[in-house]
Amino acid sequence: MVDFLNAIVALLNYVIVPATSYGAQLALGALGVTLIYGILRFSNFAHGDTMAFGTAITILVTWLFQSWGIGFGPLPTALLALPFGIAVTALLLLGTDRMVYRFYRRQKAAPVILVIVSMGVMFIMNGLVRFVIGVQEQNFADGARFVITATQFRNLTGLDEGLAVRTSTVITVVTAVIVVAALFWFLNKTRSGKSMRAFSDNEDLALLSGINPERVVMITWLLVAALATTAGVLYGLDKSFKPFTYYQLLLPIFASAVVGGLGNPVGAILGGFVVAFSEVTFTYAWKKVLTYLLPASLAPDSLVQLLSTDYKFAVSFAILVVVLLFKPTGLLKGKSV
Amino acid sequence: MKKLLLASAALALVAGGASAQDIKIGILFGFTGPLESITPAMDKSAEMAIKEVNDSKALLGGATVEGVKADSTCTDAAAATAAAQKLVTSEKVAAIVGGDCSGVTGAVLQSVARPNGIVMVSPSATSPALSTAADDDLFYRTAPSDAHQGDIMADVLMKRGVKKVALTYTNNDYGKGLADSFKAAFEKAGGTVTIEAAHEDGKADYSAEVAALAAAGGDVLVVAGYVDQGGKGIIQGALDAGAFKTFYLPDGMYGDSLLKAIGKPLDGSFGDVPGIDSEGHKKFLDMAKAAGFDGTSSYTGESYDAAALIMLAMQAAKSDKGADFKSKIESVANGPGEKILPGELAKGLKLIAEGKPIDYEGATGVHLLGRDAAGSYRVYTIKDGQHVTDYYQ
User: Fold this and answer.
1) Which of B240, B244, B256, B298 to probe the A interface (max A CBs under 10 A)?
2) Topology adopted by domain B20-143+278-373
3) Cis omega before residue B17 (within 30°)?
4) Which of A149, B21, B81, B302 has the greatest count of CB atoms below 10 A from its CB?
């Protein structure tokens, strides 16, 4: 029985808890990508750097608060600074839309042109973030780091295996749930949300029924600013902030959005968890868990690892390819790419 | 009038002759990419050596040197090659300080330096593969090969009685080379490596790697990665999950940013970093401080030495042509002759001009074995959030 509990705890500690927190971070990022794809109809490559920008601003405000001695108890101060980060990011995104995307929208440019345009925006934001906060890594998490540490858990339960739960993991999951619930309420219940969905379903019909497209676009960017900044800050709290890493986050985020079904918000969330769990579980070495579960004579000598961790990206992209081959619209019905 | 014209023409000629040539030296580092946080200090170190030589006005009868920066990106061989090609064909550099990462350095060596006969001195490419790559005697490095570091690491762990380790490395020429050489040395000494797991740099999440490493187990986790990249992510993850308590940190993992980011839990971990306890190194640190940057940042001394070696070799060959001075680098670095420390480049240049031999010590006690620096390592333990030197080896 104790062995069984040890096995469960080891699995929780190394697979389920970290994958859940990573999955929630990816899901929030993928929601932003999917929203832009659904309403503005292009894949926004600048999303990773939008997250970085929002986080950079939030970090600056966090530092300001810290210098004023304002804290948030056991919770990170960055959560207080988050609204300011969102506001500045919203201004940046609206400015970018005014200066860049609106021009192409009026030209009725093909989506592929907008994708390339967003790549240009990505490089500019890339530079902007580095100008604002530099290339170095920044740690801005404060407050209590752990809800329970591995050692505390061991002492508490008497088990051999420890289970560590970080504050950031809890915050990430809770925030993700709140944000997603709020987003769905907005899209389904409010007038603006409904007009966004109408615009996404059929642009011409929406225009005929008197929906103001510029307003829909503006609300979309505001939502994207909120989602991207929240995702970026949560990720940064959990790991750390580095512009280069955020740029690299783009790939798993896109994989999540596409696996789930581009343009479908529920799909984005599902996709985030599929990518995160596939990365961790396929490459997990089962030796420890099996040693606990099996009788001593059957305990494995090898690592019992399906794939070396080198292949973890291959796994999530293999899933992406398989999904696109058999269900081009993604797991949940999105738009085909 | 005619006389005046003639006179001014003659004057112009004389003036042209007197203002000696302008030599360009390429500085090819990853100003963007995974090393972007340490390359600025490396660049400043190389520029410091160049400025020192310019101020001395002693190189090749008063030539001025200009450093031309180019971005190696550290990871993208195609981009690095294009940047190096531009240095050679349009900037017409006489030599290159760089590259920084092993992979791009090898690529630039083969496709740009060798076809054009350009000398490259890298301060930080440490892959063992570069010791045997075809180089037409154009390639040198002021950092030691990781083949050597692998032996040192095995030795340090054995001395502490550690027999069982898990090993993770950054998935590139540096990480793989160091991991292989360490594994071979450690197993030869009787130790066990429970798992050898690669990690990619700059990725979003390292839970999978930490899970696999924890399942394999070991007394110490050896992290052959980069301090502000995947290596840090792995350590953070392993500590958070309670998988490992002690880490071995080779050169790429040496940095204050790691101590600042992780803090107390790192106490008791140990590692090594190329380093020397010499007068030259202290002098270099002072000079760096005066110039306004951190001389203890990785590969700064090596960068200064790389640039200095190139210019001293030019002086020794009385030429800025790679084909002429490539053979002089070793003799300038190894002596025998008068020892030259950082800040004494002017003296070195004058001695060479007078035909006297020098032995360039520089910031890192430069001594070349063929094309590689012999290297000396500082073995340290982390105590109270500080790197405390144990001994030099």
Assistant:
1) B240
2) Rossmann fold (3.40.50)
3) no
4) B302
Give a yes or no: residue A264 inside a domain.
Answer: no
Residues B206, A73: Cα–Cα separation, whole Å? 29
A279/B214 Cβ within 8 A: no
What's residue B251's pLDDT?
Answer: 85
Helix, strand, or coil (residue A209): coil
To the nearest whole Å, the CA of B272 is away from the closest chain A CA by: 23
Question: Is any Cβ of chain A less than 8 angstroms from the Cβ of B264?
Answer: no
Question: Is residue A336 one of the residues assigned to a domain?
Answer: no
Q: Which of A221, A95, A184 is nearest to A213 (CA)?
A: A221
Q: CB-CB: which of B37, B204, B242 is closest to A136?
A: B37
Q: How far is CA B87 from CA A178, B112, B114, B121, B366, in A?
A: 53, 10, 14, 15, 27
- Distance between CA A238 and CA A21 in Å, rounded? 9
Domain contains A215: yes
Asked if A150 lies within 8 A of B199 by C-beta distance, the reply is no
Contacts with B261 from chain A: Cβ below 8 Å: 137, 139, 240
Average pLDDT, chain A: 88
Q: Which amino acid is at B297?
A: S
CATH 3.20.20.330 applies to domain B146-267? no
Contact of A309 with chain B, judged by CB distance below 8 Å, is answered with yes
CB-nearest partner of B208 from A139, A149, A280: A280
The total of structural domains in chain A comes to: 1
Q: What share of chain A is helix, strand, coil (3-state, %, to 5)?
A: 75, 5, 20
Domain containing A81 equals: 23-250
> Residue B382 carries which DSSP code?
E
Q: Kindly write down the DSSP assignment for every residue of B105-129, as one continuous string.
A: HHHHIIIIIHHHT-EEEESS---GG
Q: Which residues of A touch B166 (CB under 8 A)?
A: none
What stretch(es) of chain B map to CATH 3.40.50.2300? Answer: 20-143+278-373, 146-267
A244: contact with B, CB 8 A cutoff: yes
Which ranges of B57-145 would DSSP assign to H, the alpha helix? 77-89, 102-108, 114-116
Q: Which two tokens stand for residue A87?
A: 């506001």
Contact B197, B231 (CB under 8 A): no
pLDDT digits (tens, 9 = 90+) for A251-285: 889 999 999 888 888 899 999 999 999 888 888 88
Angle at B353 between CA B351 and CA B357, to 5 degrees: 45
Main-chain dihedrals φ then ψ at residue B166, nearest 5 degrees:
-100, 150
**Domain-embedded: residue A186:** yes
Which residues lie below 8 Å from residue B171, measured CB to CB, with a gap of 6+? A310, B198, B199, B200, B201
In this prediction the ipTM stands at 0.76
List C-alpha distances in Å: A50 to A34, A87, B329: 14, 13, 48
Cβ atoms of residues A252 and A242 within 8 Å:
no
* Residue with the larger pLDDT of the pair B173 and A16: A16
Q: Write the pLDDT tens digit of every residue in A159-204.
A: 888 888 888 889 988 988 898 899 989 988 999 999 988 888 888 8
Helices (H) and strands (E) in chain B, counts: 15, 16
DSSP letter at A305 equals B
Q: Is B30 on the interface with A (CB under 8 A)?
A: no
Q: What is d(CA A226, CA B115) in angstroms, rounded to the nearest whole number?
A: 53
From the list A247, A276, A283, the residue facing B212 with the nearest CB is A283
Name A228's Cβ contacts closer than 8 Å, sequence gap at least 6. A29, A32, A47, A50, A51, A54, A89
Q: What is the pTM of this model?
A: 0.73
| Chain A residues in contact with B215 (beta carbon < 8 A) | 10, 14, 284-289, 303, 305
Q: Is A241 an 8 Å CB contact of chain B? A: no
